[in-house]
Amino acid sequence: MGNCMGSAAAVQVVSQPSTALPSPARGPSSRAPSSCGSVYGRSVGSRASAEEAYPDGRILEVPNLRIFTFSELRAATQKFKVDYVLGEGGFGRVYKGWVDETTLNPSKSGVGMIVAVKKLNPESMQGLQEWRSEVNFLGRLSHPNLVKLLGYCWEDKELLLVYEFMSKGSLENHLFRRGAGFQPLSWSLRLRIAIGAARGLAFLHTSEKQVIYRDFKASNILLDSNFNAKLSDFGLAKNGPTGNDTHVTTRVMGTYGYAAPEYVATGHLYIKSDVYGFGVVLLEMLTGLRALDTNRPSGQHNLVDWAKPVLADRRKLARLMDPRLEGQYPSRGALQAAQLTLKCLATDPKSRPSMKEVVAALEEIESRKSRPAEPRDLSLCRGARSHGSAHVHHRSPYTPRHDGSRSAGRVSHRSPML
């Protein structure tokens, strides 16, 4: 993976004026001083109130994280019980746990606040580097549309991260999975989710030290109980260019189908490389189809390549829209969203809008109270639906399972695109 720690401007993860990362504790008996429990406990409330005081987000002067011991997280997850697995990815498994809402001390199952505990697989190739990136960025970034990192544990070879629990799971699940637990998202909900995710990206891009997210995709957009969208998984995040530089050069990492073409071709990563990824997700939200799906007919495997010529054609757009919407969307709003998607997917990064402009455009679409169009003839929808609907998708980390099974869903972990 790319080196997220290489920049001198990198956010540091210490509460003292130091440039070192936290050192691992030695042995299961090691723990933070007892006074830290109450200090970090109060900080949880302060982060929640900070979102109200700073609705546009802020970068904290010092990290605001609880340092957990391994034994605490073992207790919170009932000894990492298999039944508590929420998902699994390249980093490792993610477990549901329970902690006290005030102190974050472990509590009994069903008592207190639910959290998501990500536990590193010792054999993971992503491992320590992504753990550091998560702590470095999410430890200081505070915004309503970024998942909260509550704390971490580094004890001997054990690396764990503790996040707020997002009860509605990932956008990917709601767009592509079928079943009683996943009802079709309405047009208004899709817009709301898109706006929330866009605001999160805009905050990263316009903060004092610009951050390039680098892995924007539907599985990394998590939803709370009110369908508020939050960006998760900062393992590939990079500090943006400084001075007169227009980009940073790095090893190409990310997810096929979402990475910007200039980044894949050259390794040059621009702030607006994230905008391309947003355009891909917006296209998925309009169509209900995955960015890449080899189960679709030949010529339609890559959604962007296939759909771009249709997006600007008002007459053909109806055929492209997700049939699960059942025609219940304003035709003008859909066309505006399609045009915005096209701009985000521009080949030249300079031609793409900024995320601040994307937010404004989406808010304008949402503000229009147009009546939904009459249900369209769903027989016009492309034959690709029958081919793509059976595709089984991989569950994103730290999102809840809804099928009641005991086995953990897996996600295919990201790989270098070289």
> Under the CATH scheme, which architecture of the largest domain would be assigned?
Orthogonal Bundle
Classified in CATH, the superfamily of the largest domain is: Transferase(Phosphotransferase) domain 1
Tally of DSSP β-strands: 15
What is the CATH C level class of the largest domain, in words? Mainly Alpha
Q: Could you tell me the radius of gyration in angstroms?
A: 21 Å
Number of helices: 12
Principal-axis shape: globular
Oligomeric status: single chain
Share of β-strand residues: 5-15%
Task: Indicate the low-confidence ranges by residue numbers.
Answer: 1-20, 26-47, 386-413
H/E series = HEEHEEEHEEEEHHEEEEEHEHHHHHH
Count of all domains: 2
User: Helix/strand-derived class?
Assistant: alpha+beta
Largest sheet: 6 strands, mixed
Strand order within the widest beta sheet: 2-7-8-5-4-3
Q: Give the averaged pLDDT, no decimals.
A: 80
Head-to-tail CA distance between termini: 11 Å
Helix content: 25-40%
Under CATH, the topology of the largest domain can be stated as Transferase(Phosphotransferase), domain 1
InterPro entries: Kinase-like_dom_sf, Plant_Ser_Thr_Prot_Kinase, Prot_kinase_dom, Protein_kinase_ATP_BS, Ser-Thr/Tyr_kinase_cat_dom, Ser/Thr_kinase_AS
EC number: 2.7.11.1
GO molecular function: ATP binding; protein serine/threonine kinase activity
Domain Protein kinase: 80-365
